[in-house]
Amino acid sequence: MKKILIINTGGTFNKIYDPIKGDLMVDKGSNALEQLSEKWLCDLKILNIIGKDSLDMSNHDRLELLATISHSSYEYIIIIHGTDTMDITAEYLSDGDCQKCIVFTGAMVPYSIDPVEATANLCSAYGYINALKKSGIYIAMNGVMDVYEKVRKDRKLGKFISV
Amino acid sequence: MKKILIINTGGTFNKIYDPIKGDLMVDKGSNALEQLSEKWLCDLKILNIIGKDSLDMSNHDRLELLATISHSSYEYIIIIHGTDTMDITAEYLSDGDCQKCIVFTGAMVPYSIDPVEATANLCSAYGYINALKKSGIYIAMNGVMDVYEKVRKDRKLGKFISV
Amino acid sequence: MKKILIINTGGTFNKIYDPIKGDLMVDKGSNALEQLSEKWLCDLKILNIIGKDSLDMSNHDRLELLATISHSSYEYIIIIHGTDTMDITAEYLSDGDCQKCIVFTGAMVPYSIDPVEATANLCSAYGYINALKKSGIYIAMNGVMDVYEKVRKDRKLGKFISV
Amino acid sequence: MKKILIINTGGTFNKIYDPIKGDLMVDKGSNALEQLSEKWLCDLKILNIIGKDSLDMSNHDRLELLATISHSSYEYIIIIHGTDTMDITAEYLSDGDCQKCIVFTGAMVPYSIDPVEATANLCSAYGYINALKKSGIYIAMNGVMDVYEKVRKDRKLGKFISV
């Protein structure tokens, strides 16, 4: 078994309902992942940074992410990221040329609203990275998993597809 | 992307509550998998056979499973199986020498009671098989995934562990 | 047993997550109530009107609600309403002097996100109206139930309290 | 608002899934009620006794229940009870002639498997008892609520009906 790090950067995966505001917000912690880890009966190694909606993600944030990956002792890293700019961050890391095996994932529906799609995406990424042999930047979403250039969000269908 | 078949043989994964009897029973259909498929926004190819609790699985059932695999056009197959005799059926298929890539999975908690662990197991198997290069018989449960001889159910802990 | 009508006017009770927009919206139908009715094993008589967020409710909408109540053959009516202007609509109906037994309810958390509070509110209103003897305008929320003047939303606590 | 005591005696309402045994068992605590109380944003006063399946309830248990009710300072009491012998215990308390207002409730589906029906039953009982004027023994289940002689479990339909 490989040692895998999950870097949680925020996005829909982590959104929770705030009854006072009557709106959804990104949980700055990793409550969704911790609950998933407990229910899966599997200790996940989680690192929590940035904590933003995909559309608020800046290049400053991307630099922080790249630095975190480069300084980490882990070779196999899953990144939970908002879906709208997942491709931009993947491209950014690809340019960074970090020689690690990185799988992006996230969710169309917050774990706290319905845990199935978020759990399915994260755990497919977890299974995928366990069998991957080559370094590179990958995306695993909605049952589609490949190098990041071959997976993109279809905004009309509301899911990720293979291209 | 590989073409993957999911053969659903029953087990805890598929148990549902019967309010009239006040007890759990194995759903003979694949309602749990179909719901998972819909929520994951991913068409899963499902084949439903046997529909039994793990402890009721006979060698006749195992022969049916082996025949189904051998006659299938799919090279990559996930088998949903009860947890108590998953190792026995894995051994049986190994003796059958079918030269395909097979990943067993299942659940400690029925999908209908709490979908997280069942979804996590199935989808980690789905990600794992997508990146596997060699034929063989594997198990993916509770975040542990390897050739079947190296993964077993720990009855005391109530989860699968690496051995 | 009394014959009870549930008039669904919208509000948080009925909000659902739209994965394409990544936001919550008021379901124009009564899917939440219909699901509740099915799971409770109890045929609820539901009438769907207005379908708005509490803050978008106009006096034109309130007139429609009053007319609907006046023309209805039901003497016992539960109104599902957004929480922010529940008191205004209750006051409006009180001025309308309709001589029926009316209980307002709603939810702080959408049924589709977590069904417990919405179900608890609606069903406490259902039990309450079944034993009420006098016509009047009542509110039943978060375990507090009384004539509408004595129950109000505490915006800081994020729940309804007795005053 | 009346002061209401909830006496939890066990039954399906409180059943939880034990992943080690692969079976359902009655939770000896009141986790379901405590979770409901927290989500409803309403402090419920809970007393936990007996903790048995309906079919295991003995006359010794019923005597304990009657004594608990008689010695309690509460005049309004909800009893959570297994559905199969709810009528027998109601009759028993009726013979005990305790001059309090008592509403029995319970669930066909455990709160832990799907919280909606259990929540709906408990909260309809809560609303009902709040408006009841006369002492007596009542049942509130599946939207039906009346004196206990007029509500019974229909084993074929798998729900409580009015008779």
Give a quick precis of the structure.
Chain A is α/β, with parallel strands linked by helices and 163 residues long. The first copy, chain A, is built from four helices and ten strands.
Distance between the termini of chain A: 30 Å
Uncertain regions spanning at least 5 consecutive residues of chain A: none
Q: How many distinct beta strands of chain A? A: 10
Task: Name the quaternary structure.
Answer: homotetramer
The residue fraction in helices of chain A comes out at 25-40%
Shape of chain A: globular
Query: Number of helix segments of chain A?
Result: 4
Widest sheet, order of strands of chain A: 4-1-5-6-7-8
Question: How confident overall, as mean pLDDT of chain A?
Answer: 96
Structural class of chain A: alpha/beta
Order of helices and strands of chain A: EEEHEHEHEHEEEE
Strand content of chain A: 25-35%
Largest interface: A-B, 40 and 40 residues
Radius of gyration of chain A: 15 Å
The biggest beta sheet of chain A reads: 6 strands, mixed
